[in-house]
Amino acid sequence: MAIIIMNISKYIILILMAMYTLSCFTIFQESSELAKNQKLNKQIIYVFLIHFLSYLTLALNDPERMKEIVIFYGVQIFVAIIYMYVYHYIYPYSSRVIANNMSFLLLIGYTMLNRLDFGQAKKQFVIATASLVMVSVIPLIMDRYKNLRNYGIAYGIAGIMALGSVFVIGVEQYGSRNWISLFGITVQPSEFVKILFVFFVASMLSKRRDFKQVCVITAFAGVHMAVLALEKDLGAALIFFVIFIFMIYVGTGKIRYLIAYVLGGIVMVGLAYLLFKDRLFDHVMIRVNVWKDPWADISGDGYQITQSLFAIGSGGFFGAGLTQGSPDVIPVSESDFIFAAIAEEFGVLFAMALILVCFSCFICFINIAMKVRSRFYKTMAFGFAVCYVFQTFLSIGGVTKFIPSTGVTIPLVSYGGSSVLSSLIMFSIMQGISTIENKEAKKIEEERRSIEEDARKAQKA
Amino acid sequence: MKKKEEVSKKTQEKRKKRKKELDVTLLTPEQQAFLEREEKVNKINDKLNGPVLGITYLFAFLIIGMMAYILHFMIVEKDQVIANAANSRLDKYAANVIRGDIVSSDGKVLATNKEGKRYYPYDSLFAHAVGYSKYTKAGIELVGNYYLSDSNANVLERFVNTLREEKNEGDTVVTTLDYELQKTAYDALGNADGAVVVMEPDTGKILAMVSKPDFNPNNIDTVWEEANKEGSNSSVLLNRASQGLYPPGSTFKVLTTLSYMRQNPLKYKKYTYDCSLEEEIFNGVSVHCYNHKTHGEQDLAAALANSCNQAYADIGIDLDVDKWRDVLEKFLFNKSLPYTDASATSRFYLDGDSDKGYIPQTAFGQGDTLITPLHNAMITATIANGGLMMRPYMIDSIENYKGTRIKKFSPSSYDTLMMAKEVEVLTSYMQQVVTEGTAAAYFSGVSYDVAGKTGTAEYSGGEHDYSWFVGFSSVENPEVVVSVLVEESDVNGIKATSVARKIFDQYYN
Questions:
Q1: Which chain B residue lies closest to A380 (C-alpha atoms)?
Q2: Is the bond preceding B151 in cis, omega lying within 30 degrees of 0?
Q3: Which residue of A382, A391, A446 to mutate against B (max B Cβ within 10 Å)?
Q4: Residue B466, SS3?
Q5: CATH number for the B89-177 domain, one of 3.60.130.10, 3.90.1310.10, 3.60.10.10, 3.40.50.720?
Q6: Complex ipTM value
């Protein structure tokens, strides 16, 4: 009986996932507010059912811990439903699509972590829920304090100091010295400095956009990246670089900057390669070589990526079924390589839909960026959009061997306290910008309507 | 994305319309200023959004590219990737499948299940080629493990089986092995230890693969226990065809000839050596021909046909060793073979810094050089195939248990290693070996023509002989390559060339 339920659930989950993904994109077409809200409520039902069926499978598979799993399931779905329903009552101008996607991605993460390691799932849930409460004030703060754009240089300096702190109070984890220990909690500063950095570039560009200003921003960005390179966190350095060049392009509107930075970047990498060939580039070269031919050393350097490909391929389009694969043999399957674990058990079709859900988050971010008219918030929203989509791309691309692996997590899905908190901050800031933008739009619309009214009256008279 | 553009265009049109409807002159100056400002801000906003849209397209392109790549991986590469023996998931999936059969190209069942056990109807005949499915697995049981433990039976049938918690029928692996050729090779080798590889030069299909000593895979438990007993040095489980390393003996002269031709493109045709003394000194080392024979005046073709060691020692000391090594490494010495099953790496040790005293021996195939019978077959097949080396393979296709074809493996080439002219010259030299040289006696009165090379390698300090033959037929239209190695041929009296003759006879039967 259990087997029948699990097998049928697998396919139903897939259908529900397809429907959810589709609605993520068709929602932009709905013109009436009512139809939109109906669709958003439907999304919540899809999320509920997918999560329910997944947990049904998990519980049936582990009768000994069934009680614990059921309780954990209960609190998860309670928090998620509350969030998806209540958040837009508190912030009527926030984006419900983003709220739904955010909760859904967190739930997928919990489910997969629960399957891989119950303890980690619980820890992730506690951190994420506490973070959710904390970050819920962000839109309020942003709405209240309109002078956030005045602290450009301060953001930059704070960012560099935070990054540099790993040289003073840093600890080593996963072979990179990019973690610090604060009151017994290990934190990855670069996750949070990313946000400060976006604030920095946005606020600098909102003030002035002349050549001199661009040079100042470039100098700060250069220091950020240099510190990250020294920490051997080249994945983060790459993310900073991409955020930086695209924000400058959008902020100034001049494509020549983009071209110059891309060329400059190539020259810098070439130069760094010549200068620090052995110290800095050893593990880059290893990763590139592993990417080119992971089969040459299946049991050594190529182990992680080949295991990942075995997982994705063995699961097939429809997946082995939750708990039926062996994603636990992939090293760090709970964090950097969670995509492979999801693909193996939920199926490649589900995993592809997941990519589309992530992409729809990006589209939502871009939508906000296009609508908001303040240059500061526009560049900022755009910066976060790029940050989000590029990080997702690096992570999934690395796991599927589309690009060399950079050891980056999928925001909200992968295990990791720093990653989850910083992603939630990012999503909340976007909700803040959405609130500011929608309020402004509403005010202007009202003003316009009253003018039309006046004009019509005057015409009649 | 296009929709959005349309939408924004629509809103712009709406705005314009609205403005036209309004009679601006009727408004207060503040109201006019508001409208003007709005107009301006909207314009700036539209301009700023240009780059945003551009970058959005860029990322959409990247994401779509990534998804297309994943699809490509799933459709094209997946099967080959997960069939890898290092994929630990296969055992897990195998638990839900009744292991499929292995059959020969002519439809004989080589491995199946009987009374819940793996059963091999031909006992030891296909022992090393088909292998065994227990313990570490070996042969086709290992290489084809993924297919054997996968089921492509009817979808509905599989679904019902899953619900009933019953096992599915695994797929059948159709091999390239030919029953008659395998049997001929097996019988021809008799009681001798050694190995035979028969393959198609233009496809790389392995038609027969024999290695002795062998074992009965139906008794794999006892065999495994014996072989792995403490202190046991039994090599019965070793597939000598692909994993046995032997000195190539005179078969190596083929590649020495090729290296010499490449280094002396103008004068190799005029090469002569006078083999009139029983012994001659080269680089301080004394060299004699087999059985201390003298061959007289030898050109290159005659030297190969008569397998004249002194001539090859003379050629060897003339070679640039680094370039020689390059040729050999192109031919996969010191490299792993492009072959899916386990294979040993052939060795060539000399380079420019080596002691010159090793050169003469190495040039005629003694010394420390080592080669596997499979590798020697591949080199011969390269000559037979006009210089293009094919990847050898033993799995032809996969069928579901009802016989519907699921997948077909096509021949795939490794690399072009020789030019047409070189192929032509070497072929004619090798044909001379068979028509008037060392193999002539074995091939008298055959209906087909053969090009090949014999070899005898000494080991155990010269006490025993390894007997070699590599060759292909026919010369005009090469269809089959045979590589034979016989251990202790001086004791058991079985010559590799006579084994090869029987196989050629069977092929053209």
A1: B52
A2: no
A3: A382
A4: strand
A5: 3.90.1310.10
A6: 0.94
